[in-house]
Structure formats: C-alpha cells, structure tokens
Design brief:
The protein has about 240 residues and is an alpha/beta fold. Helix 4 packs across helix 5 and helix 7 packs across helix 8.
C-alpha cells in the first residue's frame, strides 16, 4: 500500500497557509493532493482560511463572517509569514477549484468545513453547488469536526466522500448519528496506534499533522492511507525511502 501525501493548507511550512502560492508550492512537490479549510463570508461566499478570525493570518481583525468577500480581498494574507508574500490574498473556494483545474490537477482535494465553532447556515449546500458547477476532474473528500455538518452534506449528496475529524481518543466512531457508516477516520497522528487497533472495519486512516522526519517515518511505516503534512516535499522524500517509488 502506498500512503497518499497531502499538503496541509497547501505547503504551510514554506508559504502562507491557505493561499494560492501555498497550494502552488504543494503541487510543485508532486504530492498527491492538498487540504484546505472553508468558512463563509458575510455575503455567504465560501472562503479559504483556517481560523474563525482573520487576526492571525492577515493584517485585519474580526470574524471572517463579519467581512464581505470584497472586504476580505483587501486584506494582506501573506506578510505575517514573510514580507515577500505581501500580495497574497484570502482566496475564495471557487478560485482554488479553478486554479487546480487550470493546473490540470488530478489528485485529491480535502475540503474541511470549519463549522465546529460557528455552524454556518447552509454551508454544505453552498459548497456542494459550487463543486457541482465547476465539476472538477480531481477527487474531493469532505471532512469536519462537526458531524452534523457531514450528515447535512450527505443528505444533499449521498455520494459525497467524507471523513470524520478527531483529535482525542475515544472519538473513533464507525457511524454518524443517523446511522450512515463512516467512510474514513481523519485523526491526529499521535492516535495512530490506537486507530489501528480500533479499526476492525478497515477504514482508511488519514493522519494530521505529521511533520518531523521521525513522525513521518513512523506513520509511513504503518502504511496508513494518508498523511497530511505542512511539509509535503519532505514527506515525499521520506515516503520514497520507506515505501519506494
């Protein structure tokens, strides 16, 4: 089995996370795909940013949902990482989907719906409609810490591929509250051994966020389905050493 390598928020370790340059750098490593996070703006547009607030990764202050897309686009989303990235903006999900299509991307895009703190109304339908409109050729996996979000998503599109996110032991559930079987576990990498022991249904195990050479080597030696990392280039080199071409 060959473990998939996904760039966490693009290439978070080498570029400002969740920006087009970060996604571009991830693709340049030859990794299998990227992971990103989606919130809704004030005008109900899916935007790609990790936090509920813009404070950490831009020069603005306040909740993402308090800004229109036009206002979000005026923020500097790169200088906090390095001054040379000052021109980077918060991208919309549509911009990222079209960017990947333009790049002839044929890998995996993991869209995390960030509804664990703010349960954005109708985010599932808005995101699914956007994906349906663009019809990307690449594979999309949805994930969330909010399992109600996943249930609503599947009620709209039962064919959607999804995984449940968790960071604490004991959350390795095998079905959603409506009885729908869980398709994959997206767990913190420190839980890898527990996940393997609990995985009697042979679900795909997808680990986040694996960065050090030791942790990459250990997780790759377990032949898990996927590793999500801030350093996809590094992970690709370690995978070659452990799993071969």
């Amino acid at each position: 089995m060959r473990t998939h390598i996904l760039g966490h928020r693009g290439s978070k370790g080498t570029a400002p996370e969740n920006t087009l340059i970060s996604f571009k750098q991830a693709l340049e490593t030859g990794c299998d795909g990227i992971e990103l996070d989606v919130h809704l703006s004030k005008d109900k547009v899916p935007v790609v940013i990790h936090d509920e607030f813009v404070d950490r990764t831009t020069n603005g202050k306040g909740l993402v949902q308090s800004f229109t897309v036009e206002e979000l686009k005026k923020l500097d989303a790169g200088s906090w990482f390095k001054k040379k990235f000052a021109d980077e903006q918060i991208p919309t999900l549509e911009e990222v989907l079209l960017f990947l299509k333009h790049e002839h991307f044929d890998g995996i895009l993991n869209i995390e719906l960030k509804t664990d703190q703010i349960d954005y109304q109708d985010i599932e339908r808005i995101v699914l409609n956007m994906v349906e409109t663009i019809q990307p050729a690449y594979k999309i996996i949805y994930s969330s810490f909010n399992y109600d979000t996943l249930e609503r998503l599947l009620a709209i599109n039962p064919r959607a591929e999804f995984g449940i996110l968790f960071g604490k032991q004991g959350l390795e559930t095998k079905s959603l509250s409506n009885g729908i079987p869980v398709q994959s576990w997206h767990g913190r990498f420190t839980l890898v051994n527990r996940m393997i022991r609990s995985n009697t249904d042979n679900l795909p195990l997808r680990l986040w966020t694996v960065n050090s050479l030791f942790d990459l080597g250990y997780c790759l030696s377990k032949n898990v389905d996927m590793i999500i990392t801030d350093y996809p280039g590094r992970a690709m080199k370690v995978r070659k050493q452990i799993q071969g071409e």
